């Protein structure tokens, strides 16, 4: 058994960047338990504390007394953003904020928000200046190796598909394997990070 698998939850009153990373891991544990256990070990944590952090996060999201916007909530948990700026989204002018995530040093947690603080997207992206993976074949699509925007660009045109739960997204696209055979692929992401390929089916030449 993994040494950090089933210890009791820490009794902590704060909820900060460490606890938020546990929230990210809780959703990823549905698909990549071994990777999550390794990440928990890196944090000196375990599944019980991960579940407790997620419970507290969900309580914040659904609290009637918490009137903070999504951006306000992230600021309170993660502190001042590392970077902030503006981005056009169609006719809308959005604010883009990002924070470092120590478990994934080359990534950032990015929130794109509308005027008033409502979030459009809340997910992991590649940090500015960090080299992304070289995505060419199906075999290059390894869990936790790439983000949803990187996959969408590398295997364009990719089709956005409905996710199976909040914070999950899926993309459908055609990609060749290392032998040049083409496949219909569905890639599933949690918090914007690749988790698995639930569908890879040869399609032949078109």
Report, as a whole number of angstroms, the end-to-end distance: 48 Å
Task: Give the uncertain stretches in residue-range form.
Answer: none
Largest sheet: 4 strands, antiparallel
Mean pLDDT equals 90
In the sheet with the most strands, the strands line up as: 1-2-3-4
What global shape is seen? Answer: globular
Roughly what percent helix? 25-40%
Question: Tags for this entry?
Answer:
alpha+beta; 3 domains; 4-stranded antiparallel β-sheet; Beta-lactamase Inhibitory Protein, Chain:B, domain 1; 206 residues
Walk me through what this model shows.
- It is a single chain.
- This protein is α+β, with helices and mostly antiparallel strands and 206 residues long.
- The chain has 3 domains: 67 residues, no CATH class; 57 residues, 2-Layer Sandwich (Beta-lactamase Inhibitory Protein, Chain:B, domain 1), CATH 3.30.1450; 65 residues, no CATH class.
- It is 27% helix and 30% strand.
- The protein has 5 helices and 8 strands.
- The strands form 2 sheets. A 4-stranded antiparallel β-sheet has the order 1-2-3-4.
- A hairpin with a 6-residue loop joins strand 2 and strand 3.
- Helix 1 runs antiparallel to helix 2.
- The longest helix is centred in the first third of the chain and has 16 residues.
- It is globular, with a radius of gyration of 18 Å.
- The protein starts with 16 loop residues before the first helix and ends with a strand.
- The model has no long low-confidence stretch (mean pLDDT 90).
């Amino acid at each position: 058994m993994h040494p950090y698998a089933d210890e009791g939850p820490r009794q902590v009153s704060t909820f900060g960047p460490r606890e938020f990373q546990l929230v990210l891991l809780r959703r990823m544990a549905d698909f990549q338990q071994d990777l999550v256990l390794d990440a928990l070990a890196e944090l000196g944590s375990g599944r019980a504390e991960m579940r407790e952090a997620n419970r507290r996060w969900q309580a914040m999201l659904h609290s009637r007394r918490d009137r903070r916007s999504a951006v306000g909530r992230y600021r309170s948990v993660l502190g001042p953003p590392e970077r902030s700026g503006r981005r056009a989204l169609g006719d809308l002018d959005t604010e883009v904020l990002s924070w470092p995530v120590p478990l994934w040093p080359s990534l950032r947690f990015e929130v794109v928000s509308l005027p008033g603080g409502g979030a459009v997207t809340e997910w992991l992206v590649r940090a500015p200046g960090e080299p992304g993976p070289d995505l060419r074949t199906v075999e290059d699509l390894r869990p936790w190796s790439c983000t949803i925007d990187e996959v969408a660009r590398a295997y364009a045109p990719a089709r956005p598909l409905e996710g199976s739960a909040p914070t999950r997204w899926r993309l459908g696209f055609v990609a060749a394997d290392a032998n040049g055979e083409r496949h219909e692929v569905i890639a599933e992401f949690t918090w914007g990070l690749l988790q698995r390929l639930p569908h890879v089916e040869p399609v032949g030449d078109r």
